[in-house]
Amino acid sequence: xxxxxxxxxxxxxxxxxxxxxxxxxxxxxxxxxxxxxxxxxxxxxxxxxxxxxxxxxxxxxxxxxxxxxxxxxxxxxxxxx
Length: 81
Ligand SMILES: [Zn+2]
Hints:
Layout: H1 2-34, H2 36-44, E1 47-49, E2 56-58, E3 63-65, E4 68-70, H3 73-77
Antiparallel strand pairs: 1-2, 3-4
The protein binds zinc ion (ZN).
Zinc ion (ZN) binds near residues 50, 52, 53, 55 and 70.
């Protein structure tokens, strides 16, 4: 009796795992498109140069003021001109 239950349990587990794998392969398509923008954003992230100290930093971390990039708030206040 217990062998039968054990067998059913293994079969159920196998079916569950297969279904889970199939479900994952199906959901990866909408997920990849949904997160595609974020991925492309990370790949497309360019380095910019601070107008005050000429240090290079990721564009997402830079401050854009009047068309110029700055590495910190302090350098925005200390404009070269
Ligand atoms: Zn700077």
